[in-house]
Design a protein that fits this description.
The protein is built from 6 helices and 15 strands. The protein is α+β, with helices and mostly antiparallel strands. Strand 3 and strand 4 form a beta hairpin.
């Protein structure tokens, strides 16, 4: 079936915005029925909830912690736009009110006031082992997620201090199971990637294995030294290798059985 019109109409609005400024951001579907969530992938518009609506519990806990599309949680998850099937006038007020970007057919598309890059560098971290406490901290008025990450334990590296000139984290390659990010910084940092911290992701810095960290209870991070470096994220869960081994053993047993039957 074709995706719901809210997705095709909303994507048309965003395509016009992308043509105007050369960028297109991640979407937060708001009030869109759960059975329509796959529309994000169908129209090629990345959703904060992940690939094909794969929604790990940690991501949902963070995203739903404050039921408001202006929430800091959605800043952390990299939401640039909000897609809705009707006007969101109640959320257009306040310091970070939503701004209507366009309306077409079944879709209302809003721009969020504080979108964060999907890949970025952070130079300090707060250590909060308890996820509930960590999520509560995210929403404190004095917490700045652009400057500070939240981790469950001390990272295996020193961080900062933040340099006078901000570092960069540029996405060079983005595929379903592979990311390549170039970092440049005058101080050691965390490279934060606003993607689900799903089991099976590995990281390499300049070809060398690096410890994968979970930031803000739900997304991925890795330590990067000062200087210029290449960060590679690859999805390679152990289950793939277990499945391959089981399949190989099964094929060997089947081949042995066929050979034995032929010689019988």
């Amino acid at each position: 079936d074709a995706p719901d019109p809210v997705w095709t109409d909303g994507k048309a609005v965003v395509d016009e915005l992308a043509d105007a400024d050369g960028t297109a951001g991640r979407v937060l579907p708001w009030g869109v029925p759960i059975f329509s969530q796959n529309g994000a992938m169908r129209v090629g518009w990345p959703s904060v909830f992940g690939y094909d609506s794969l929604e790990p519990a940690a991501t949902i806990a963070l995203a739903s912690s404050v039921p408001d599309p202006r929430s800091t949680a959605y800043d952390i998850l990299g939401a640039t736009y909000v897609l809705a099937g009707g006007p969101l006038d109640d959320f257009a007020q306040g310091e970070r009110g939503l701004a209507l970007a366009g309306q077409r057919g079944a879709a209302w598309v809003y721009e969020r006031a504080r979108p964060m890059p999907i890949a970025r560098l952070v130079y300090s971290a707060e250590i909060i082992p308890d996820d509930t406490a960590a999520i509560n901290r995210v929403h404190d008025a004095d917490f700045d997620p652009a400057a500070t990450a939240i981790l469950r334990a001390n990272p295996p590296c020193d961080l900062g201090p933040a340099p006078a000139t901000a570092g960069t984290a540029d996405v060079l390659v983005h595929e379903d199971a592979y990311w390549q990010i170039a970092t440049r910084s005058d101080a050691p940092a965390l490279q934060v990637l606003a993607e689900n911290a799903y089991p099976g992701w590995t990281a390499r810095i300049d070809g060398q294995p690096a410890a994968v960290l979970t930031a803000y209870t739900a997304i991925r991070a890795v330590c990067v030294p000062a200087g210029e470096h290449l960060v590679e994220w690859r999805f390679a869960p152990r289950l793939y290798w277990v499945g391959a081994a089981v399949s190989a053993v099964g094929l060997l047993l089947l081949g042995a059985a066929v050979a034995r039957k032929r010689t019988a």
